[in-house]
C-alpha cells in the first residue's frame, strides 16, 4: 500500500473541502477523503478525492464527476458503523458480547457502559425493546479548570441517545458483560461533545483506583497528531489489542447515531487500515496510540480491516481536558491512581 505525501494532500485539501458537502448530499455517499486513485483495481500513483459510497453501482460514476478542478475522483464502496454494542433484555446480541473482564484497577481498553437501558426500535434493531450498551474506556483525562479526573470514551457510548443527562451512571464491567448497577458503578457522565471532528464524552471517575495506562499497551506518554503512514495500536473491549497503519487524516464521514440524534457528519477523521480486523462492536472509545505510546485519536467505528477515529487534539479541546499521564504530579489528581 502506498501513501501520499503531505504536499499532495495539501494541494487537494481545499478542493476536497469545497465539494465534500455537495457530494455527501448525494444518494449513497457516506464519506469524502483523500487517497490514491485506483483504476481497474490497480494503483495509479495519482492523488485523488476519494468518495465513499455504501454500495458501488453503475450510477455512481455518473453522479460523481471524473475530476474536480483538475483533481481526479475515485468512487470506493465502504461501510462505516459506530462500534458500540447492544444487548437486548431477551439476550439477542447486536454486536459481539465478550467474556467479562473485571478489573479492580481501571485502565484504558476496558469494558464500560451506562447503567440505564435505552429503548431502541427498528430499523436500528430487528426487534423493538430495551437494550443495554457497551463500549470501551479509552484513557483518563483531567479537566483544565478544577482538575477532575475523567474517563474518556465516545459520545455514542457515553450519551447513547437524546435522553442523556449529566450524572448518568456507568459500570465496569458493562451490563452487557455482566456488570450490576450499584455494585459495579465506577463513574458518572460529566460532559460530552458531538461536533466538527469530535464524538466524545468524559466520565467523572469515582472511588475505583485507576492507572494512566492502557491494558496491553502500557503507560501513556502524551499526545501527538496522527501521521499518514505511521503505525498505531488500540486496545478495545471486543477485539483486544489490534494494529494498523494510518492511511488518511482527511476523512469526512456521515454516521447514523440513531436514538433521536440522527445522522451527523464528522470531519478530518483518521482512517486506519489493518491486515486483519481492526475493530468491532464494543470497541468505540478506545484510543489510538503510536509507537511512542502517544495518543493520536479516539476510535469511533469502521468495518473489518478499516477503522476511523477522531483526532485527539479537538477531542481534548472540546471537552476542555488534557490527557492524564504518569508524569502529572500526584497533587493534581483528585482521585486515587494506585
Automatic annotation (TrEMBL):
Keywords, comma-separated and alphabetical: Disulfide bond, Hydrolase, Protease, Serine protease
Top-level lineage group: Bacteria
Coiled coil keyword on record: no
GO molecular function, one term: serine-type endopeptidase activity
Biological processes per GO annotation: proteolysis
KW Disulfide bond (keyword) present: yes
InterPro entries tied to this protein: Pept_S1A_streptogrisin, Peptidase_S1_PA, Peptidase_S1_PA_chymotrypsin
Family: Belongs to the peptidase S1 family.
Protein's recorded name: Uncharacterized protein
